Amino acid sequence: MNWDNMPLLVILVLAVIGNNHSVSLAVSALLIIKLMGLTAWFPHIENHGLNIGITILTMAVLTPLAQGRISVVEMMVAFKTQSGLIAIIVGIFVSWVATQGMYFLKAAPEATTALIVGTIGGVCFFNGLAIGPLIAGGMVAMIINLLNLFKQ
Q1: How would you class 16 by CB atoms within 10 Å of its CB: exposed for 0-12, middle for 13-18, buried for 19 or more?
Q2: Which of 45, 51, 88, 92 sits in a 20 to 30 Å window from 37, CA-based?
Q3: Could you tell me the pLDDT band of residue 1, with boundaries at 50, 70 and 90?
Q4: pTM reported for the whole predicted model
């Protein structure tokens, strides 16, 4: 029996149990690509998939602006409120954390599966939301760096 697909199958099962459609779809697509013998696509997906995904996510976030549901005046008012200022600061911090996660996952790709399993576990057992491996990876990198400070 070929065990090469087992990690993806385990993640697929966990994603289905956790009702995580994004992970289910991603794993299913990778399995189909692999089973169809189109593995030459994998380097392109690995190299460009993150940028394409972030572009699509950014489009989704900016759609209310494009539709005119959020006006410039509403944006300016939000910047002047306590929650608006906190949101800006947290947005900057989270984007920095996600960048650290990208570097971490490139340096330690074996952690990707553990992060996905942990995220799916949080979704299944704690009614959590799948925030994505980049932010989780950034948090792991921050914790590891903090722990390394105490070792010295």
Answers
A1: middle
A2: 51
A3: low
A4: 0.67
